[in-house]
Amino acid sequence: MMRQILCLLPLLLAACGEEQDSALTRTLPPLCVSTTCGQVMDIATIPDAENTLTTPDGRVFVSGGTGVFELKRSGDRYTATPINEDAGNFTGLAQRGDVLYANAFDGQLYAARLTASPQLHAIHDLGLAAPNGLATGPEGALYLSNGPLATSALPDPKIVRVQLDPADPFKVTKQEDWLATGLTAPNGVAIRGRELYVTDSSLLPPALGRIERILITRDGLPGERHVIATLPSIADDLSVVGEGLLVSLFVQGSVALIGFDGAILQQTHPLGLAFPSSVRLTSGPLFAPGDVLITQKGILGDTSSPYGNRLSILRPNAR
């Protein structure tokens, strides 16, 4: 996200980031993305919490301003264990086979084998100042956004495609600017099949944010583009669910379920969350059916105050 947002916040509030697919939601009760049907519960401290990833076997990883953490549970207590050696500002997370990948604002792409005790290490210098959203796409390529704004360079909004050696998941064979036009401040990236979804923003009210769908053609190039939603808030990360997209409305302080036609189907109360940076439906032994993971970042760059800096769940009320 961008520090300039904080300066614009009073004005904005006055005027008003391989993805899981529908197979997950078919085994769950109707999705609850509203504080009228569920309640938000804080479960772990994550400094400058940014993004989450749930593996098919139910492991959960969370990125933040000091590292990437694996979430574990003992009884009713959750703990977050770092899996990186050196502290850093980590952003996007993606999985490809049995390897976890992570972006960081030091410009590196990190990776770790998903062993019992994974350890991230840098595998490739991306040469980017703001690598952010990250997703695994067709043919095993990684797609990542550079944006919205770097802290140490001029804006360079684009989506980058990284190809990996089929025989060595820790070796990058090619990096290319996949899409470098028509973007203002790209942030979250999610992929469903050959469709890439990205959150972008213009900082011009009333449509402060938007979600764009871009086709990934069979030859790997960007194809048809379509803005599927305009939003009254700058959005951060997003994820795919059967009903559509879960989107974190960063400035509005809420999360929403948005249909693929752009309609807001459900939304938590505005200003109820401390600058949410990601939202994702989860599953597995750590959670109850229907739990939705939310990272609450809080004030950008602050890694210690009680405002934000936490991982929460939106749990449906008992039926």
Structural overview:
This protein starts with a helix and ends with a strand. The protein has two helices and 24 strands. The protein has 319 residues and is mainly beta. The protein has helices at residues 4-14, 22-25, and strands spanning 38-45, 51-54, 60-63, 68-74, 77-82, 90-96, 99-104, 108-113, 121-125, 131-136, 142-146, 158-165, 168-179, 189-192, 195-201, 209-216, 222-231, 235-241, 244-249, 254-258, 264-267, 276-281, 292-298, 308-316.
Distance between the termini: 37 Å
Number of separate strands: 24
Main sheet: which strands, in order across? 1-24-23-22
Main structural class: mainly beta
Estimated radius of gyration: 18 Å
Mean pLDDT: 90
Largest sheet: 4 strands, antiparallel
Low-pLDDT sequence parts: 1-28
What's the SSE pattern? HHEEEEEEEEEEEEEEEEEEEEEEEE
Helices, by number, come to 2
β-strand percent reads: over 45%
General shape: globular
The proportion of residues forming helix, as a percent range, comes to under 10%
Summarize the structure.
This protein is mainly beta. 5% of the residues lie in helices and 49% in strands. The strands form 6 sheets. A 4-stranded antiparallel β-sheet has the order 1-24-23-22, with no helix packed on it.
Features:
319 residues; mainly beta; 4-stranded antiparallel β-sheet; 2 helices; 24 strands; 5% helix; 49% strand; disordered N terminus
